[in-house]
What does this fold into?
Amino acid sequence: MQLQTAFFERDTLIVARELIGKHFVHHTEEGEVLKGRIVETEAYIGPDDRASHTFGGKITNKNKTMFGNAGVLYVYINYGIHHCVNVVTKGAGYPEGVLIRAVEPLEGLEHMSHRRFQKPLHELKEREMFQLTNGPGKLGQAFHIQKHKHNAHSLSSETLYLEEGSGCGDIATSPRIGIPNSQEAKMYPWRFFEKDNPYVSKAPKR
It folds into this structure.
């Protein structure tokens, strides 16, 4: 069953945790069906969160989607190449959201393999198999997410949406990843992930 807008119009930390185990689904223009079970998320909580794109409350061309209605995608490009997928939460005027960091692929793995590694699934090494979708940029590439097409996309659509999943194991929390210049915000325990799932991304080595 597809998640309704009301699911996203709640406290962002609750949404981030409850997205673990839900399914992310994309019916592409090429006729593919891509599906994955969410295993890792991060919450970003608006103007007071130094790690958020909306820190300080200033609306820009980049972050304006975050200031709109809940239940839409906020897609941004990281390092010039990685299309990262976020879900806008709360509601208009509350620029908060959840980054989908990683999913466990369920359907469309052959298409994901060609997009990620330019080779068929049966040729993937074991480590490549787990690298299909174990990070936000990898997820974006595997699921054919593009900022110019999918930023501000409504999750009420029939082509790109979130749905009830098959449940999950134990959920752990930790500080978020890759935000070293965020002062106190880098220590907030706003990352949620399924324990022991091989598709969860890894923190950078220190």
About this structure: DSSP finds six helices and eight strands in the chain. The domain at 5-194 is CATH 3.10.300.10 (3-methyladenine DNA Glycosylase; Chain A).
